[in-house]
Design a protein that fits this description.
Two copies of one chain form a homodimer. Chain A is α/β, with parallel strands linked by helices. Chain A has two domains: about 90 residues, Rossmann fold, CATH 3.40.50; about 120 residues, NAD(P)-binding Rossmann-like Domain (Rossmann fold, 3-Layer(aba) Sandwich). Chain A is built from ten helices and eleven strands. The first copy, chain A, has a six-stranded parallel β-sheet. A three-stranded parallel β-sheet of chain A has the order 3-2-4, with helices on both faces. In chain A, strands 9-10 form a two-stranded antiparallel ribbon. In chain A, helix 7 links the parallel strand 5 and strand 6. In chain A, helix 6 crosses helix 7. The longest helix of chain A has 21 residues. The first copy, chain A, is globular, with a radius of gyration of 19 Å. The first copy, chain A, starts with a strand and ends with a helix. Chains A and B meet through helix 5, helix 7 and strand 6 of A and helix 5, helix 7 and strand 6 of B. Strand 6 of chain A pairs antiparallel with strand 6 of chain B. Chains A, B: This is Bifunctional protein FolD.
Chain lengths: ~280, ~280
Amino acid sequence: MGLTIDGKFIANNIKKDIIKKVEYLREKGNIPTLAIVRLGDNPGDISYEKSIIKLCSDVNIDTKKFVFDNDISTKELQQILGQLNEDTSISGILLFRPLPEHIDENLIRNSINLNKDVDCMHPLNLEKIFEGDYSGFTPCTSKAALLAILNSGIELDGKTVAVINRSMVVGKPLAMMLLSNNATVTICHSKTHDLRKITKSSDIVVTALGRAKYFNKDYFTNESIVIDVGVSQDKNGKLSGDVDFEDVVNNVRMITPVPGGVGSITTCVLLENVVKACMKEAVLI
Amino acid sequence: MGLTIDGKFIANNIKKDIIKKVEYLREKGNIPTLAIVRLGDNPGDISYEKSIIKLCSDVNIDTKKFVFDNDISTKELQQILGQLNEDTSISGILLFRPLPEHIDENLIRNSINLNKDVDCMHPLNLEKIFEGDYSGFTPCTSKAALLAILNSGIELDGKTVAVINRSMVVGKPLAMMLLSNNATVTICHSKTHDLRKITKSSDIVVTALGRAKYFNKDYFTNESIVIDVGVSQDKNGKLSGDVDFEDVVNNVRMITPVPGGVGSITTCVLLENVVKACMKEAVLI
């Protein structure tokens, strides 16, 4: 029977650590505060926003909501970010993406104060990840996948990891973080031939395809550690990962479930980043 | 008998293309000009400088040398770069590295005009490579290794490539460029276990270890394509790559020699970047 890596348990431990840090900051007169900037009223965004506000409240991080119409101009959005950048009561800024098509995303992400960029949008923060420099912020989903591995007692040094995703929000930053931990990393994608050969010969497989139950047990061995970042709906409308959990769980060494796996950790990474931003502002780090 | 990938032949073709572009630019009144900034008189730097000046002269690119003492301060170097940034007669700036230890390299690389950064030092240009955006400049050695593959009639799409190097001047940028070409990329390094298993199961192997003749034929198959970026001296003081060429050449599909392989292409990439910088200045691209 394979072990299930409990994302909620890991998230709870991270939360406990955050609570302590927030307490320390508040005692020093610094109030960690997240500005959430949402354009339009996409139900997914609203639901995510609610869960962030609830989680922030749980750990005593303040939140401030800034909601604008979807037809806001790039210039107006830049001005708002400029105000939030200057506002010393704001520690970090989370701008929901994807942005509307008429917005110049490159101008916007360059407009965020580097030290408030808790979602790691700014090219200079992303470049730090490329270099293996963790003095900035880390992309939340990539870091959550890494934490799922590191918090399961797995020693990454010398392991082989297949990362099935090459995006800037998951696969590429994750690959760089794995390299910093001395893993040997194979980056796979839709054009990869014989994916099964690669997953079967890797110690750890991280999948972020967004195709429900795509991977069955044939893709793994009894020694595989499977980190499932994918979230989509299966044919019955049920939330599912990239991996057919029922088929796989008893045929691998460890696996993260969906829900209750990497996704549970992701928002905690955002909160960690808010605390880090507040510490930067307070010149404590 | 394996094929030898002729770096000099590839370099000559690139040079012919550069000559045409330089001619076009000069006709329009734009003179591609490379500023070479050297600190101290390291014999390696001086020798590299001479070879660059010779090659620039071959393709009708102008060069200007700026030589300073090794004890120049970070601030003074920033001022010099500031002047070169402003100087409209300079298309691109090449600053020899490694810099003396007392220089703040991070400040320096952020001081170079993004559009004159022909050696791809600036974090914002490196971040573009991370994203797969080639509107900036490419690191010369990484691009040279890519060109060695692309100019040998090898279709990268769907191929597996092992890159044995995780530095910011070779391995990481190269891995990103290979991904943009739809290759499946494994990044290996000193902590990688069972390197032989990985090299033997990859279609293409790019080595940049700097250990003379480290790889013998046991690391490859008859179908391997071997790109040797390493340059060091063997025990007899002879220039050698990471691969034991004599042992390997007849047991693989293709291989680049050292010298006469990737190294021959590298300086051509620098010249391509100077032409690109001149075109940016002339608003032709």
